[in-house]
Design brief:
- 2 copies of one chain form a homodimer.
- The first copy, chain A, contains 20 helices and 3 strands.
- By secondary structure, the first copy, chain A, is mostly helical.
- In chain A, strands 1-3-2 form a 3-stranded mixed beta sheet, sandwiched between helices.
- The mean pLDDT of chain A is 95.
- Chains A and B meet through helix 1 and helix 2 of A and helix 1 and helix 2 of B.
Amino acid sequence: MAGPFYQKLTEQFQRIYHLQHLQSIVSWDQATTMPSGGNQARSNALSELAVTIHQTYNQNGLTEWFERAEDESLDMSEHQSLREMRRRWQLATMLPTELVKAKSLAGSQCEYAWRDQRHHNDWTGFAKNFKEVVTLSREEAKIRSSITGMLPYDTLIDFYEPEMTQQRLDQVFGPMQQWLPELIQTVQAKQQDWQILPYGHNGHYGHYGDDAQKAVGLKIMDYFGFDFNHGRLDVSTHPFCGGVPEDVRITTRYESEDFSRSLMGIIHETGHARYEQNLPQQWRGLPVGEARSMGIHESQSLFFEMQLGRHQAVLQTILPWVQQHLESDLNITQFHRHYLQVKPGYIRVDADEVTYPAHIMLRYQIERDLISGVIEVDDIPELWDELMKKYLHISTKDNYRDGCMQDIHWTDGSFGYFPSYTLGAMYAAQFYAAMTQQFPTIAAELEQGNIQPITEWLRTHIWQQGCLHTTDKLVSAATGEILNPEYFHQHLRQRYLNDN
Amino acid sequence: MAGPFYQKLTEQFQRIYHLQHLQSIVSWDQATTMPSGGNQARSNALSELAVTIHQTYNQNGLTEWFERAEDESLDMSEHQSLREMRRRWQLATMLPTELVKAKSLAGSQCEYAWRDQRHHNDWTGFAKNFKEVVTLSREEAKIRSSITGMLPYDTLIDFYEPEMTQQRLDQVFGPMQQWLPELIQTVQAKQQDWQILPYGHNGHYGHYGDDAQKAVGLKIMDYFGFDFNHGRLDVSTHPFCGGVPEDVRITTRYESEDFSRSLMGIIHETGHARYEQNLPQQWRGLPVGEARSMGIHESQSLFFEMQLGRHQAVLQTILPWVQQHLESDLNITQFHRHYLQVKPGYIRVDADEVTYPAHIMLRYQIERDLISGVIEVDDIPELWDELMKKYLHISTKDNYRDGCMQDIHWTDGSFGYFPSYTLGAMYAAQFYAAMTQQFPTIAAELEQGNIQPITEWLRTHIWQQGCLHTTDKLVSAATGEILNPEYFHQHLRQRYLNDN
């Protein structure tokens, strides 16, 4: 039986959980449903809610409650719960309110203007707003650093990926800088004779209605175990996984000439969704019951998208639904090749499994040095061009739109997020290696298109763990070792070069 | 320039407005979109929000702010604004928190059990829960009465219809008790030869898909001036008008064999929606900028549904859309007669324009005497049967399901609401009489199906007035006199007996 101060803290955090529920659903509505004329009122309402949540974190007495709770008799999981509450509270209250407001304002303005500036390739206009965002993010990192003793950029990573640091990322990405560009070229050479045809009849483009694509999407979600009693599929311009664990809202976007992106996007978001839907019930409403980190979250979506979704047996299961609902005479070889084709390009979100990490390494190097003050905003385009040439052999000179202005993340100061994507891909490869080693039948079942033993492993080892353990402990308990990027390298060689 | 205390009050009420925005959108989502598994978490989140709003009303200092603002130099509309803020504040803070919670709990339990009990015609089971709801509502009325000096039942009416009293309602409904039963019989005799055919080809039932019905619904909304940049049409089990003035969400329900109810339901909700969408912009976010009362709100929906929607010229405009999208060979006579047919029945929500007020009078008489303590819960079924026989010549003996258990209103203690429906019908008739007298061309335009001059009149005289004036002043300014039920009587005689 936990003591009264621990109890008061859990009640306070459950209050925050309920308010965040409103935030999630109303934001989902804004992205999927709201007519544009409602936007100003919606923004005001969301901003009022943010203030309310901020006040709940800052309520008088919490400092004392945390101190007193520390002295109460807590069992191990309550200690873990207290640790996570403290972490959220510190993150939420560490910055002066003035800085939070200034950053939010500068971020909104920069992001809003960016939507147009990107379209017009207007780097000069963008850089002007962006410098303010960078100044405030550096200020934020400096304050967080002075309180936590971490390096400034590390405090921003920590927000998304606790315990991850610049030093560890350098160790993870360093070797990849060496092997990845060569691997990309080898795979391209191996694939040079592949013919990739459009998906319509006789290799022509077809026209695929939203309803038909959605019908296949729902079948896929069902196959991947999505719980429709606790979630939905809808449409938005930028696909995402939102809502709350009790009601997970995933979205997609249908392109009439190419259904392959919506189908794979749905698999990706279903990975996020199953993690959310299967978080530990007994810790619902408390930080310790939430997802471990953004890297682990991406590991689940990328496990679904890359480890499962690009597996021939899984595509073989999906193909008949595609043939039936989308009236396509696509064969399995074409279907599989479409998803395995490696082709360096400008745009991160369009990148294949092999070139994607190059986009991330580049962004990581730039944002790391930008926050540390090693480079300035004006240095970015040249550095971008240089690294694109180095990793992918393409140039973005004077092409800001498809270069350093392509992503939304930096526009509102979300520095430290990008590494999560590739960390996720690495964790996913490591999980797959571990589970097939622990239970060799898992791989055999997958060869038959049966993913149930795999998702059961994920449920037990990842989803049901919530935030009870640190990331390193979670990964060690599941796989026997902490993050080891070698599994990802092996996975790529195996899949793309048949190299064991 | 308003003083600092008036200013502080407006900021506080704007805060409440933003929080209520969240409440509206999230409740809309719950009724239209949410999978059922999300319900528990949603209820918790909404309950947390209710507490937050309650705390905002009860913030320390508001009593002083109201006192000090009263002494500040305010212009007339600021005085009106202050009056409405005070009214909302008093309504929200008058009751002890314990009673609010107890009533909310008893109401939820009674309503939840009712859904099943109604189905099983289980009056005994229902009465048990319902007695607790009545006890708490009487307690609520008593406390409100002791503070305001009004009669207990009047304090409940006042919640929905400020300044309306039992005494005035008795004066309004008293004469109608005399003339309505006779009118119903006369109209029925007049209509006895009418043949009402199903809507399909050659008088057979058709099957009308949701998409086709929605297509006609959207055309109708457009014709009635709905602003789609600030609102939407969706589906829910119980149709309603929700959302916020900046983003009004109306809903309907499609029946596959009969499109007439969804079409007229959409017209009704569009009336509510246009009122909300056209409330005064300069008072947005403050109580004085909101709709005047539930009676006036219903007057707008019923104006659209009854005055306009049942007008032959309007139906003539709609008919081609019906013929086109719903592949019906319906003619205008059949279409019109379907909506004009008068037929006493058990169910209020299925009632026609002429019998509807009988259902309301009956409920009014019962709830008035129930709250005053003249009757008890156990007396209701017999009284219901007696009044149904008196007004509509049908008996509900032992039929609780289609009798006193048919409505949701009482189950959670919403006593005082029912009169709003018939007050709305009366106001609507009075508005129509006034505008056609002030601008005779309005009636002529309507004969051509042009409703624009009518909605402009409503915009100027009703929608744009918000809560600036009391209901009596609003109605006097628009029509030259306060509520006069004779216009409604005249309207019914004219439409159903061609009697001028």
